[in-house]
């Protein structure tokens, strides 16, 4: 019974093999295309069997100077870029933009009378960057003076806190300790802790 069922499958396979026939020679269109492509790859007046010679991109310059350990004037001139030098000569001398900076070393003989009331120039007292730097320097001087006076009888109430003390103060505020108790314990001036803002604004990172 099994052999009877396999007979139709064998017949179908043999029929497929008989129908699969490959051409014995190339078609004329394929042969013509290959011949034209072969003719194009050979330059006119060149033998068919020879390979194409690549064209030279440009002249090769060989310097007459020999290799030397010291840099002579001829080697220096040979290494320069003539196009870059020609561009610099065409550009000419560059005049810098006039500046009102007091630290500038540029001197403009054509503009000796600088207008002090120029709206684009600010005095040092009105410059935001200058104000920030001067305020930071002033606070640093006051903090150093307070640090030097620690432990003295003439020490006044503190205004500045180090990182360790500030962390302890923030922790005590989170536990509900009043600001007046904290200020007396750390010998802080009255109202120093108010600069930290209300409770909950500044917290201890865990």
TrEMBL record:
Biased composition (Low complexity): 1-16
Xref: InterPro entries: HTH_put_ascomycetes
Signal peptide: none
Region feature Disordered, mapped onto this chain: 1-75
Compositional bias of kind Polar residues: 24-34
Record-annotated Helix-turn-helix domain positions: 160-203
Bias (Basic and acidic residues): 62-75
Highest taxon, organism lineage: Eukaryota
Protein name according to UniProt: Helix-turn-helix domain-containing protein
